[in-house]
């Protein structure tokens, strides 16, 4: 810089009172200066920052507390408040310049769009239909004010305000999916544009989208259904399948979900060769959840012979790599002069997303006579609780359902307690002898407890009578 900065005394109203009219500066650091413009009626705070090539950029940040107004930290600032705001304004301006230096300034909307495109490319490469991420983010993120925020100026307050604006009618699981999708989109953009964004952007994303109720475990075992209700759901699925001409496609999907307890995203990837008839087993593809995990591609789950028989039409005469669970696709034909518009079948393809099950599931639940809020995921909860109550080890139940033992313990604790209680009951043994000297000791215990107004549960009636007789005859 060509000139030496002559710092003025600006820290108190009295010090500023003795300054002549005009601009006076004080350094915050080597490239940022806090300014004070003395006027006839009070003064104003300014900030300027060095842009290179002997050039500065300047901005007014508020009025000074020169005695006529008290500092409020918003539009009337004390010296300390002005210095803090000046540093923030300069830092924000530099961040904007850096962000705009190499193409358009990255925004939340750009991050969401890039994330959706990446997810769809991944799904196409895996031969799957389009997932629900774009639908969720379009409805709950892109329709708000958040997408217009530039990433370099994103704050925890922006993210918190967006989150508090989500509909209160959304289920906690839905909110978690939306938040997780947005977090993944922002983190991917922060990594891609890290040279153009503030260093603290990752911490802002983490803190702003931290799960508020994560640590409050939801008792999912309460959402499990009795085996009789599961059978009613399967029977209702068969009825709806026949009435709506699904040709077994709907029934087979519900059967596989019920028999394996797997997620929809897993069973939709099942191939014909995954059905192992001789072993009575279905090899379920593992989920793609998690990052950096090394795990097997499939999990072997035992299924009943009735389920295998129901799957036979889907595997007969087909190649091992073909999709196991398919459905008909329809195309609407335009109405003509002599015929109305109609839907015609145009071919078969795998199930694509869980949303395709929504309408038929509502009919199934109604046909089965179950509460309207019963969701398909209840089939998974029911499978986990059924195995826990059957006494299977927690680690085995977790492995069969492609989750962790910690998650099972966190969300299905009641079922675990019931199972362990039945096991531990078998380890209970009588501790008080019932014959010889021990019998006399037991009689004394009965007598003592009766004197206290209590009768010990589980004691033989003969011993209680003996204790009564001993007390009547005056024996101790």
Automatic annotation (TrEMBL):
<dbReference type="InterPro" id="IPR044068">
    <property type="entry name" value="CB"/>
</dbReference>
<keyword id="KW-0229">DNA integration</keyword>
<dbReference type="Pfam" id="PF00589">
    <property type="entry name" value="Phage_integrase"/>
</dbReference>
<dbReference type="InterPro" id="IPR002104">
    <property type="entry name" value="Integrase_catalytic"/>
</dbReference>
<feature type="region of interest" description="Disordered">
    <location>
        <begin position="453"/>
        <end position="476"/>
    </location>
</feature>
<dbReference type="InterPro" id="IPR013762">
    <property type="entry name" value="Integrase-like_cat_sf"/>
</dbReference>
<dbReference type="InterPro" id="IPR010998">
    <property type="entry name" value="Integrase_recombinase_N"/>
</dbReference>
<feature type="domain" description="Core-binding (CB)">
    <location>
        <begin position="106"/>
        <end position="190"/>
    </location>
</feature>
<dbReference type="InterPro" id="IPR050090">
    <property type="entry name" value="Tyrosine_recombinase_XerCD"/>
</dbReference>
<feature type="region of interest" description="Disordered">
    <location>
        <begin position="1"/>
        <end position="23"/>
    </location>
</feature>
<feature type="domain" description="Tyr recombinase">
    <location>
        <begin position="220"/>
        <end position="425"/>
    </location>
</feature>
<keyword id="KW-0238">DNA-binding</keyword>
<comment type="similarity">
    <text>Belongs to the 'phage' integrase family.</text>
</comment>
<dbReference type="InterPro" id="IPR011010">
    <property type="entry name" value="DNA_brk_join_enz"/>
</dbReference>
<keyword id="KW-0233">DNA recombination</keyword>
<protein>
    <submittedName>
        <fullName>Tyrosine-type recombinase/integrase</fullName>
    </submittedName>
</protein>
């Amino acid at each position: 810089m060509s000139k030496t900065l002559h710092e003025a005394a600006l820290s108190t109203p009295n010090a500023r009172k003795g300054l002549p009219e005009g601009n006076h500066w004080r350094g915050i650091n080597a490239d940022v200066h806090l300014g004070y413009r003395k006027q006839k009626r009070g003064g104003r705070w300014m900030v300027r920052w060095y842009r290179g090539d002997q050039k500065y950029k300047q901005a007014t940040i508020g009025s000074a507390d020169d005695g006529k107004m008290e500092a409020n930290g918003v539009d009337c600032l004390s010296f300390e408040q002005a210095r803090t705001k000046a540093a923030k304004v300069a830092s924000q301006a530099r961040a904007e310049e850096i962000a705009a230096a190499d193409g358009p300034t990255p925004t939340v909307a750009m991050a969401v769009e890039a994330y959706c495109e990446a997810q769809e490319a991944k799904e196409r490469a895996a031969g799957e239909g389009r997932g629900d991420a774009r639908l969720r983010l379009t409805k709950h993120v892109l329709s708000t004010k958040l997408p217009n925020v530039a990433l370099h100026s994103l704050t925890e307050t922006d993210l918190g305000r967006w989150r508090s604006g989500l509909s209160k009618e959304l289920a906690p699981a839905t909110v978690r999916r939306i938040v997780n999708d947005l977090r993944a989109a922002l983190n991917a953009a922060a990594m891609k544009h890290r040279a153009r964004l503030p260093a603290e952007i990752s911490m802002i994303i983490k803190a702003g989208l931290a799960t508020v109720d994560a640590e409050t475990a939801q008792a999912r075992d309460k959402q499990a259904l009795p085996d009789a209700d599961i059978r009613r759901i399967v029977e209702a699925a068969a009825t709806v399948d026949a009435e709506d001409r699904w040709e077994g496609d709907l029934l087979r999907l519900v059967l596989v979900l019920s028999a394996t307890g797997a997620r929809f995203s897993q069973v939709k990837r099942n191939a014909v060769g995954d059905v192992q008839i001789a072993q009575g087993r279905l090899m379920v593809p593992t989920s793609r959840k998690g990052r950096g995990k090394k795990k097997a591609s499939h999990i072997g789950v035992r299924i009943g012979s009735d389920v295998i028989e129901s799957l036979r039409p889907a595997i007969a005469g087909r190649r091992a790599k073909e999709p196991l669970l398919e459905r008909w696709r329809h195309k609407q034909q335009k109405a003509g002069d002599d015929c109305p518009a109609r839907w015609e079948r145009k071919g078969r393809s795998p199930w694509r997303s869980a949303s395709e099950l929504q309408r038929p599931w509502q009919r199934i639940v109604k046909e089965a006579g179950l509460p309207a809020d019963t969701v398909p995921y209840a089939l998974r909860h029911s499978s986990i609780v059924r195995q826990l109550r059957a006494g299977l080890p927690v680690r085995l139940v977790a492995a069969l359902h492609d989750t962790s033992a910690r998650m099972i313990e966190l969300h299905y604790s009641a079922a675990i307690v019931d199972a362990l209680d039945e096991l531990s009951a078998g380890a209970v043994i009588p501790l008080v002898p019932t014959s010889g000297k021990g019998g006399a000791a037991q009689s004394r215990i009965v007598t003592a407890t009766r004197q206290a107004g209590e009768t010990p549960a589980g004691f033989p009636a003969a011993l209680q009578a003996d204790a009564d007789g001993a007390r009547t005859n005056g024996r101790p």
